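fwd from M.: "can u put these together and see what the complex looks like"

so here's what she sent:
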Amino acid sequence: MKAKRILRYVDEFFRRKDKEYEIASTTRVRTISNGTIHISASFHTIETEDAAASDDLDTINGGEPGDTLILRAENGDRTAILKNATGNLHLAGNFYLDNTRDTIQLVYDGAYWLELSRSNNGA
Ligand SMILES: [Ca+2]
């Protein structure tokens, strides 16, 4: 491959990476709708439906078996409640994302999102 062609290839590679990053950051927030969100990345922040003070999250759509997902509250004034065994979440009990520093990590087994860990980092 000639140097010019390699440079063009490298340039295109980074242009695509920049675009992916741009898409990832603008679509990070997921707003709960009828207890459900649809994910497209491994990290999302959660907003309640109609900015309610609290809202249940029962079902997470999207993902492939083996995918891991980290969720965080989008706004500390509103609480997303991840419900255990209501939809497709199986957790060590319900989890309240009531602070933008709280996190929960899940893995998808093809049918359910299973809890790996949670951190109640903010009151
Ligand atoms: Ca908390």
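replying to her w this: The chain has one domain: 29-119.
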